[in-house]
Amino acid sequence: MRWLQSIPIKLRMLFMRREAGSRLDDELQFHLDREIAENIAAGMTPPDARSAALRLFGNPALLRDQARANWSWSACESLLRDVRIGCRTLLRSPGFTMIAVLVMALGIGANVALFTVVRSVLLKPLPYTDPARLVILYERSAPNLPQFNPVAPRSFFDWQQTLTGVEQLALVSPFQTYNVSAEAGRLPERIDAGWCSWNFISILGVRPSLGRTFTAADDQPGAQSTVLLTHTFWKRRYASDPAIVGKTVWLDARPYTVIGVLPSWFVYSGAFGGNKIQVWTPFNHEAPPALLNTYEDHEAIVAARLKPGATLDSVLSRLSAAQAQSKKDHPGPAVNGFVNGRSMLDDAVHDYRTPLYALLAATACVLLIACMNVAGLMVARSATRAHEMAIRTALGGGRLRLVRERFVETGLIALSAGIIGIAFAWAAVLFLTRVRPDMNRIESIRIDAGVIVFTVAGIAACAVFSGLISAMSSNSRQLLSALQESSRTTRGSSQRTTLRSILLVIELGLTVVLLSGAGLLLKSYQRMRATDLGIPIDNTLTLNLTLPPARYKENAKQALFFEQLISRVRALPGVQSAGLVTVAPGQGWGGDSLADIVERPLRPDDFVDMHMRGADPGFFAAAHIPLLRGRIFTPDEKFARGTVALISQTAAKQLFPNHDPIGSHLRFNYSHQTFEVVGVVADTRWTLSEPPKPTLYMPLYGSDYSGATIFVRSPHNVESLAMPIESIVGQLDPDLPVSDVMTLRDTIGKSTLDSAFDSLLVLGFAVIALVLAAAGLYGVLAYLVTQRTGEIGIRMALGAPRTQVLRLMLVDGLRPALLGLVVGLAASLAVGRLIASMLYNTSPYDSGILAAVAATLLVVAGAACILPAWRASHIDPMQALRTE
Amino acid sequence: MGVDNLGMGKPSDLVQGTLDLLILKTIALEPMHGWAVAKRIQQVSGEVLQVQQGSLYPALHRLEQQGWIRAKWQESETGRQAKFYSLTAAGRKQMESESANWSRLSAAINLIVSEA
Fold this sequence. Notes:
heterodimer; A: ten-stranded mixed sheet; six-stranded mixed barrel; 29 helices; elongated; B: alpha+beta; Arc Repressor Mutant, subunit A; three-stranded antiparallel sheet; two-stranded parallel sheet; 19% strand; globular
């Protein structure tokens, strides 16, 4: 009841405050006038009456304030006043304000951007139904290895039997491809695809936006061919045709009926890829019969939804028993006897955890340095305002009030920095998503409510942190000495200097940590780039194509196509040399198999795992892979005569350490093919970050390989050959798409993309930190010199040479730098091993890098200190002593 | 001698509450402006209690903000406009309960203090 009545007065106080203020003045004036009138009536003369009344009245301003203090909204009013004063103070020194706001905005923006990425990629659960119950299952070859190997289909069927009615399992093979035929004016293209069990989409809880998903009837070898389109593919190739369901798509020259379209938000991300998949087809229907029946060809992973109450470990233990039994019943060397598993989220983001958290830590360091810099700048300013503060304190300003003003100032700086920072973060997130399309879950990165809350908390934390530090520097007890303003006697200033020096030491320590991180990552990146693929990579072009088995049923037809293709390509002007190979060096795994020596059979456990490649004889010359022993196979060694092969040097060392490999025979476990070794070639790497693997090259013509890469070398301008080669392919088969057209340099760039990204970002942060710390160091030393002008003047007047003064000031300036360096190096050693997984061929305790970092810091610190120190040494002693 | 000046320094809670009670009681008789309230308190207490402006007006404004009293600008006895305060219904109830409290409190204190 009462509060209801108090509402009108509260509203009045809010909106008509100025009017109420003048009314208060009237009220007090009325009281005063009545007092005077009474005094006059009592017999005093008017002037006496007035002075008596005023004496009794007291300080009118204080009276007004005391009355107003009881008004509603008075807290808001005083806050608003503080904000106005804060704005005015900040705008009076626009240079300082701009620098402080920009520096903090950079820190806040970088943190918000990286936090957005970390939250969306690592922390947010997957967008499926009840995603905590989704796991991915793998095989492994020994019980406790951290191995996640793909699964063989027959193992999967065994697992399904073991867990019938208990859990739902599905096979997923996310690294397949199809040629999509040309039709209705659309060009042929090669797309990434996934094979999956019929229940995979429903295990995830995804409902198609059009049509239906697979049924068990679709997932049979003899069923009609069906395909599910992803949203991007449907939108891009079929312009979001609403009548697409039921239409036919030609994949690998075979007709497939479109049964549905998946929703736009669905992107499958896993450790073996999948985020580029354009279509899904049923596994049992697509897989060749041999694949469905083997324990030794590992072509898929297994996705599972756990029942409520079941844990991953319980499922794994049941499956281990089943798998061990399978290994006993079918003891082939390529059969894995153990199982492994992890959550689907872990599967998708495992590789990104360390790099993203490392980047987040780096941005946190930068933000900390930025806040400390702002605090240091404010401490420096408060030194110049000591006089003003002393007067205000003497006039009655409470310490709390002055401290509150500091917080309001830092709050204003942090708020403006936050607003600019959010804009910067939004741009940075856009940039990050553009630059790293390979990252899993990149489609889920967006700025949402959680990020906003984080930003606001960050802004508040910055304001409080900086405000607290600068408030610590003000001390109202040194009132008198502040008012006297003599640089020889102020003790408060030395407290400020100590505070700023401590800030500097921490800043420099953090900078050293960032610098060492950047140094290590850069060295790792450089080592990776400098790694030899084994062949010269300049002016090489690779193009990929796959012949659909439906149109090229016999190996003879495939061989004819390849022979015609490569002879035409070699005839092109500008082509220095060209060859065909199934997978070029540096372009991936390409399939492997276990090999046994016919003449001296090995134990199954000792079979050597070799990469299998098909090549035409001209490939080795085109790629500049030197022949070390024996000979290269001839062009007519194909089909029945194609049982010869070349092996790489590593293979020769591993298989034939003491013998001449030429003339021996190798037999492969899975395909049971036998090859005679006719030559040894040099090693090439299949990827930059791994050592070369034993490789076998068989003749491409007449082999079962239906896909090949055209490898072209040209004296210059090799990219211009892409169009002519594609038109040659088009002439030979108009419906055959060419894909992955890139130079070897591009290939290396793609595979080192994440390393480049991480190292360049951390380097950027380190440079920013270095600049900020150097600026801080310069500021502190410049201030010190100003403070000690009198002392320096006396020293020089007493005969100290300029160089001694210079040395004195330099030592004072470099002391925090040295301390910071020591602290920073210790921290780097402690923290270095956390990023060891991001480093290639580089130790986190690399002494070269640490020495370089120390040298950089000392040089930069020296440069920052030299100017104030030089100025100090050139002080005119008479001038210095006179300005007391 | 013997003029107790209420509110020379920062008033304690006891003193603040008492001042509120005095103001409410004074205004309960008829609406009056601040100067009249001070004068009335002075008169009725036999010149013992003199309320200073430094505590009177803050108290009046606080009571108004809290809704115990309401204010109106109207013509005073001298012909000038003045701010007249009067009790609200809630204020009247508050005054009665505070009065009862005060009687109980002062009686209790009296018992102790007058133990000769």
